């Protein structure tokens, strides 16, 4: 387990390897100021300061055996990831920037040293910690909290489904609650069937040990502004009787990525001690294939009272979220956020890096987009286009769980959820991939938190002390 708090320390003037940051525009001027020996080494390494994340080792000064030069996109405006490659590649030791302070780049320094290793028989990296010194002592704890929350989301998504089912999601929620003095309630069995029929239906095909449940966590003063965070917790999605292809099923351990984001965001809210009353809801299920599984053509009830015709058992995430959103609405929150790995259509439209964000409130949408830019955690707003509501019509029930067209799949899924979100309450839905198909500095291949920091920055802006 990575102890992030050990990797950032207040700079009190101790010995450290200097890191010189340069960008394409300023490299030539910087190089002219270096010694002949350094310039010769840079030329031999063909280091020209043009490629981001490129770095080179230089002879040291001020008692240090060596120093580092690294290229970033913009020296004047550091990104969260501009030091991540160095944190991954440099030897054990203590470092500081030669000029300025790391600011947002502290996050990448931390996450560059985190890997999910629970299933490795031996570590591939026997180096010790790479410690970064900073004069921005006040920024250390917030950076550590962000890294811990991101790592929580990543690790949950990376855990194989055999070891992370509904019961384990419940255990993770209880562990978080214990850390912050929160209260957890779990609804399962007959009470789930009666109160949350869509969650029960999706999970009814699973074995008893992986029975469905609704997990709720509450934290904060009753008198504080109420916010609800909802996360899709489909711990494995076979597609049900509308079974997925082999390729489509391969990554479905990550279909609880929405729950991972919701837990991570709840952790940030509580760790920051935001003055809110938090209601976290995770509908946790496995969408399994069995004789007991729900079927295409079935009509099921919902907590809200709407009858849903099942057009496709692989459109199950919106069902469990619908019941959870209806429950959230009963508490009369002033803000609702939900996260889900909901549709392939969002990935076709936006690719793996951009979560689709839908919002029913212009101010909330603007705040989320502004926060996303400020913290370099991109999101892309998609429309809740009323004209597509008719695609969800059913001849037999109040609505169908899947559109009668293959077009606008992420939009119709969001429109389905809108039927269950509290009317008149600002609500945003994140259709996130929760996965990185190829590695980038500080972001290894595998589970990832996409949209998490943007959502937290918005909450911190609205409710921060």
UniProtKB/TrEMBL annotation:
<protein>
    <submittedName>
        <fullName>Leucyl aminopeptidase family protein</fullName>
    </submittedName>
</protein>
<dbReference type="Pfam" id="PF00883">
    <property type="entry name" value="Peptidase_M17"/>
</dbReference>
<keyword id="KW-0464">Manganese</keyword>
<dbReference type="InterPro" id="IPR000819">
    <property type="entry name" value="Peptidase_M17_C"/>
</dbReference>
<dbReference type="InterPro" id="IPR011356">
    <property type="entry name" value="Leucine_aapep/pepB"/>
</dbReference>
<keyword id="KW-0645">Protease</keyword>
<keyword id="KW-0378">Hydrolase</keyword>
<dbReference type="InterPro" id="IPR043472">
    <property type="entry name" value="Macro_dom-like"/>
</dbReference>
<dbReference type="InterPro" id="IPR048816">
    <property type="entry name" value="Peptidase_M17_N_1"/>
</dbReference>
<dbReference type="Pfam" id="PF21337">
    <property type="entry name" value="Peptidase_M17_N_1"/>
</dbReference>
<dbReference type="GO" id="GO:0004177">
    <property type="term" value="F:aminopeptidase activity"/>
</dbReference>
<feature type="domain" description="Cytosol aminopeptidase">
    <location>
        <begin position="312"/>
        <end position="319"/>
    </location>
</feature>
<comment type="similarity">
    <text>Belongs to the peptidase M17 family.</text>
</comment>
<keyword id="KW-0031">Aminopeptidase</keyword>
